[in-house]
# Entry
Amino acid sequence: MTERGGFEGLDSCVHCGFCLQACPTFLATGDESDSPRGRIELMRALETGELAPADPGVALHLDRCLGCRGCEPVCPSGVSYGRGLEAARALLTERRGVPPLVRAALGALTGADVSRFVYAVARLLRASGLPRRLAAWNRLGFAMGMLAATAPKVGGGRRRSVEVGRGAPHSNLHHPAPSSTTSPVLLFRGCVMEGLFSHVHDATIRTLQVNGYEIREVPAQVCCGALHAHAGLRDEARRLAQTNVAAFGDDDTPIVVNSAGCGAMLKEYGHLVDTPAKGRAFAARVRDVSELLAERGPRPGAPLDMTVAYDPPCHLLHAQRIAEPPERMLRAIPVMRVISMPDAAQCCGSAGLFTLVEPAMSRAVLAPKLASLAEARPQVVATGNPGCLMQLGAGLAAAGVPATVRHPVELLDESYRGAGYYA
Amino acid sequence: MSWVDRVRALLGDDAVDVAATPDGVPRVAPGSPDAVALLLGTAREEGWRVRVEGAGTWLPVDAPADLALTTRRLDKVPAIEPQDLSATAEAGIACDLLRQQLADRGTWLALDPPGLAGRTLGSVVATATAGPLRHGFGPVRDHLLGVTFVTGDGRLVQSGGRVMKNVAGYDLTKLAAGGFGAFGVIVLVHLRLRALPRADQTLVLEGSREDLAQVAEDIAAAAVQPAAHELMSPALARRERWLLAVRFAGSAALVSAEEGALRAATGGRFTALRADEAHALWMRAAESFATRPVTFRVGALPDSSDELMDLLQHQVGDEWISASPGIGAIRWGGETTVDRLRRLRRTLAGLEVPLTLERAPWPVRAAVGHFGAYREGVGPLVAGLRRTFDPGEAFVVAVEGTE
Amino acid sequence: MTAGTATAERGGSLAAALGEIVGARHVRTALPERVTFARDGLPTHRHVPGVVVLPGSRDEVVAVVRLLAALGVPFVPRGAGTGLSGGALADDDAVLIVLTRLNRILAIDPVNRIAVVEPGVVNVRLSAAAAPHGLYYSPDPSSQTACTIGGNVAENAGGPHCLKYGVTATHVLGLEVVLADGQVVELGSPGGEPWGPDLVGLFVGSEGNFGIATRIRVRLLPVPRAIRTLLADFSALRTAGEAVSAVIASGIVPAALEMMDQSCINAVEDSVYAAGYPRDAAAVLLVELDGCREEAVAADADTIAGILRAHGARGVLSAADAKQRERLWQGRKKAFGAMGRLSRDLVVQDAVVPRSTLPDVLEAIGRIATAYGLTVSNVFHAGDGNLHPNISFDGRVPGLKARVDQASGEIMAVCIAAGGTITGEHGIGLDKLRYMPLIFDGDALAAMRAVRLVFDPLERVNPGKVVPIHACREWSGVRTHPGREPGDPRAGARGELSELAR
Ligand SMILES: Cc1cc2nc3c(=O)[nH]c(=O)nc-3n(C[C@H](O)[C@H](O)[C@H](O)COP(=O)(O)OP(=O)(O)OC[C@H]3O[C@@H](n4cnc5c(N)ncnc54)[C@H](O)[C@@H]3O)c2cc1C
Ligand SMILES: Cc1cc2nc3c(=O)[nH]c(=O)nc-3n(C[C@H](O)[C@H](O)[C@H](O)COP(=O)(O)OP(=O)(O)OC[C@H]3O[C@@H](n4cnc5c(N)ncnc54)[C@H](O)[C@@H]3O)c2cc1C
Ligand code: SF4
Ligand code: SF4
# Structure
């Protein structure tokens, strides 16, 4: 970690304001305190000590930051907002600890043992079909909507998951590619993805295989630590990161991720782990599933007659700057119409735990997106991040917009199934 | 000492011409901006009432006053900068002389105000009277980089500058332009110029007003971009019927391309004029307004031009009309009464269309005012500005009427 | 107790009254929140406002202003805070009225090519909304993706394409304004003809000193059908400057004519907005020609390309497609923002000089930079002669800021001596107050102040900006309001919000 813990990333801000209109929270309130530029001002004051981490005015507005990093790609001066934010949040957390709700959520979603239980219960509940019917705008209703959104839609296939957190690196568990020229890749499974979206992992494995990849499992891997880092729990995030770095070994086999949030985090390990060189080497291997698929074309599948709105996750588009590959991936599906929404690049308000801890701001950020989706009426909204899938799914359900949410690889998977590649 | 002696002592013998004006008001012709300031400072102390004159070709020189201040000796052109496309001219220079000097240096002031050719630059600025070229090049204010004027208490105030853009301080130039001299005597003007157009072509089409209005719409819809696009009444155009005159000015490539587009949009019905014919047309149209006792302008939304012309026809007749339908500007000339003008202004105000009286004999001006029927809250602001720039009410200007 | 809570308590009752009007959520009193409003786009000035209020409608603005008038509290309007002269800053004794929530486009009339907007509408959003009608809003300050039209009106903003189409003042037809006392007046007329003296023209560029514009009626233009964008690169700044004059004198009016020097080119090329400018060029010119006729624009572009080559351009590239054109422009427009790459602090100037003097003035600026050992980057509206020398420095180095200020002063002096002015589009605000007496005498300054007093007799709107009061000559027409006299009880009320709270 650097001497100033990430604050140095803010130095180049010249206060030009180009980031204002890219910031979903500023658009929601029009308030400079809820803007990247305003928050940079707060973070600088935190670093110099001019403002105290205990000051509720500081915490309020930094907490209301989605961490979506929509402000980064528009910044001409290349301000590293995300790194500054983590530094600032670390200071806040040092001071006030982690709010109980965040702590509970972290435990439930990422804690090695608790989470297994939580996910099992959640899957049971999901299977009951109850959440779908209870989806609404209130807190409970929204949570139910989020859970409902995680359900596999069609041809989900059987659960084919491995036990995460145990075992040796590069276990011989693997899914060979059918073709002769194969490249090995290691699958990063994560926690929420593994707990609620294992069908996306399955789709990832199958579609990669069709495109000539051989997927290997890494049982010793753990949660990426993104939620911890965002909550200011740097040390916990660092411990998780070091475990992962060790788990994935130090050759140069690519590591494939299908959760944009995890991908963004893994690519930041260079700034986090104790031996930055190792972290950087690890980060260099991390690839989003769409990148790998796009490299190989990907192979076209069978036609799907549907209209899809693609909503790029912030952590893919802004943090990893991956714009083109998911679109190429969707274009490999004949007939399917992909519509682009004017505000697609804007955050949906999910932002990890944000939707739980700042529900009002989160819904305010989601609202304009729902309004344009309600007008465009796609059948499917595709996005490559678990949080976004849940947020959008819950929002669509609450707003009564009849569209389902899918991960883009699920669509490709369905197209491949139709083409008979899996027969 | 009589006041004439005082002025002679201040400004020199040749500055005063006692018997010059038709109504016997002694006329003073200061030879420099400072002399104007000196004179008005003294006028303020003495309580003299001053009317300002340029060349005396536009407004009748009939306002009751103790003395007439003419700008005709302020006729120098200190700078013409073809490289910068800017010029600095004193307010009393006649427009035709200035135009010639500019042309000699390859430059052009894209203004063609109504009135006689010898009209002063200061009068054009003070009354903000733009002609048909307003369609392509905007109102008078768009041609001004800065203005220096002398207030009613003899202060020389500069505003703007001679560079292309300037936001230093409040834009007092905008007050001078179209203030009808109520805020000061303009002594020096910095102008934004254009290069003398390489090509300049006018095309005309005769027809009924209704037909031509339709053609005008077609032209706008085809995104033809003329320098002028003027609908003239038969009397004004000296034709049997109404005339739509379209003028293109610019590079040869531009003019021929625009001309082609015009023909395409209107089915080739326009006739191109020779240069001398075009010159005569525009010149006559401008001068005609100087021969009518009353002139006013109205500015409306483009799509209401037609209705407005109906309204004018109905209330004051439509013999002398020149309109830029593309920008909703109409100039009317003719003979009419105070009552009709007042009624018309009220009717128009109801439609949110301002009427600006440009020219009329003093009794009409005094009764109707250049401006009037303001929106709520504007009157006190104008009054406040007048008090600020002419605290002793030295200037004889009928800003608002007596209604 | 922190300063923040102290002020919150002091201004408590005022904040409560404001909250009744706009809703408590839209009143900001905590110190950290006020601190985020302490700067605009020129961060060298910092003033923490007493209270920040964000009204959500015109009626709320009126009610807020009336309340403040009754209490005698000064206030400052603020748009997006991208101003570059410290104009949108308020002191502890004043309320900052932020207009970002008034962001509705009220009407677009494609027939008459007019739009009516609230002041908080972001410039580029109006063009986007007009695009389906084939129209756009022409003034395009480089900050257009962030700045508001209200701020543009207040500053009379310019932009690259103002060379051909004119600055904001050219495009504003009418305004609804809330005066200092809360009175609402409509200036201008629907068609744009002044209604009486040209008060719209007077208001545009008044930097928030005449009141708050709450509705703005602007002209839209048809989107040009033909566009050519040329990038010419030069091995010397001087020849680039000479080429500018040659283009202007040619009689062809480019839509835009912009210059960037090497240091600026490199900052842009290092950023996400890299446009492919040649890094080894001493300067590049970006020239755009547009119109409705493809053949005419093409012919003009050829002529201009010839002129550029004849005046020393090493190469002239014409943008191949809309995408490349957009990239060339994004690089230019984000150049100022990219200056943060050079150093952490930055001052930017905004002088305008006669275009023919550009080569000499640029050289003189270079000499001053060398003499003071500073990095000066130039990115500017060359076609208008509107210079933006940016001085990059590290404010933490002791004494450096003073040197920067001195160099700035010298650059300004050079520009004034060349017949120029001190600001072409950024306004005076706080930053250029000290230069006003260099170009205006006491009478001109006093006249300006007198005009302001007509709109705002107590000088309560955006106090302390634009006119350096000490430099004004006495003005007989001005009746200074009793409120400004020391003995007046209301004069005391201006002191601190604390008094008001009781
Ligand atoms: C402050 C002022 C008050 C006037 N009041 C009257 C009046 O009440 N009655 C009347 O008949 N005429 C008035 N005039 C105008 C003047 O008396 C004649 O109309 C004028 O001589 C006609 O000259 P011209 O052909 O050059 O164009 P003008 O007809 O001179 O000018 C037309 C208009 O332009 C204005 N003007 C001309 N030059 C300047 C200048 N340098 N600075 C400011 N304004 C200028 C005048 O206001 C005049 O109204 C006034 C002029 C001014 C400046
Ligand atoms: C990177 C960058 C590039 C820029 N490029 C240009 C450029 O090319 N051309 C240019 O002209 N400027 C440019 N600017 C300057 C700035 O963007 C403009 O001055 C802009 O008009 C300010 O708008 P704003 O909404 O940010 O206003 P603010 O900065 O918030 O306010 C500016 C002034 O306007 C007043 N104000 C705001 N709203 C209102 C209202 N509704 N009524 C009355 N007064 C009001 C404020 O009191 C203040 O005095 C640039 C700035 C940056 C940071
Ligand atoms: S865009 Fe970048 S430099 Fe500009 S204000 Fe935002 S963070 Fe700062
Ligand atoms: S990370 Fe997202 S919410 Fe936070 S300041 Fe940046 S754009 Fe705004």
